[in-house]
Design brief:
9 helices, alpha+beta, 3-stranded antiparallel beta sheet
């Protein structure tokens, strides 16, 4: 996974739903169907016009109706992926954000967990407690690691991933989990940034991550 990743911030809603009021929220961040169904409906109906509009800015609309999210990404990124030089002449409107090694590793582990969860069918929401996330990380750490230090560091990594929009911290008493235990929902937009091709090589990548951690290659954020 590229440890520089361009991620718009999550959005809470919009008031009117003409073309401008759809494009402006997209420029600000991610649109979720579950957050604002009216805005989502307008975006869905206007998506052809939105695609034309944002293409002038060197952007592409990514809309996943099955998962219920939409965002903009740079055509510069597409040019890098496809080796198409025609899209690489515009400056970036959406910046790339550097990720520390532990955050990148945790994103990979969450993406793998989401794939396993989807393969099992059932509920569409993957909710993990903090303790479960600690267990995901534990296998990549040297034996006799300091447990308290791991939990403290994990809190900073989780905060970063919540800020990026890939996790949602659940409020105590929300009914989605035991209110006495810190828990997080894995946002399905993570699938758009860690794709199926990357996931197919995940075991080899995770082995490389573990080796890097064991040899002291991890950098704290």
């Amino acid at each position: 996974m590229d440890e520089n990743i361009e991620i718009p911030l999550p959005l809470t809603g919009a008031a009117t739903h003409d073309l401008s009021a759809v494009v402006i929220p997209l420029l600000r961040g991610v649109i979720y169907r579950e957050v604002d169904s009216g805005l989502w409906s307008s975006l869905y109906n206007l998506q052809a016009r939105v695609r034309d509009y944002v293409s002038v800015l060197g952007l592409e609309l990514v809309l996943d109706d099955a998962e219920g999210y939409a965002f903009l990404r740079s055509r510069t990124r597409l040019a890098e992926e496809t080796e198409d030089p025609s899209a690489a002449k515009l400056p970036r409107l959406i910046v790339r954000r550097p990720l520390s090694f532990p955050v990148s590793l945790l994103l990979a582990l969450l993406r793998k967990k989401l794939a396993e969860f989807d393969a099992g069918g059932g509920d569409t929401r993957l909710v993990l407690s903090r303790d479960q996330i600690v267990e995901l990380m534990r296998v990549f750490l040297p034996e006799h690691s300091n447990e308290a230090k791991l939990v403290d560091q994990l809190e900073s990594y989780l905060a970063k991933i919540v800020e990026l929009g890939f996790l949602r911290r659940l409020k105590p008493g929300s009914g989605a989990h035991d209110g006495q235990v810190a828990a997080f929902e894995v946002r399905r937009i993570l699938k758009a940034f860690v794709d199926a091709q990357w996931l197919s090589d995940l075991d080899a990548r995770l082995a490389g991550y573990r080796l890097q951690l064991l040899t002291g290659g991890a950098a704290d954020e």
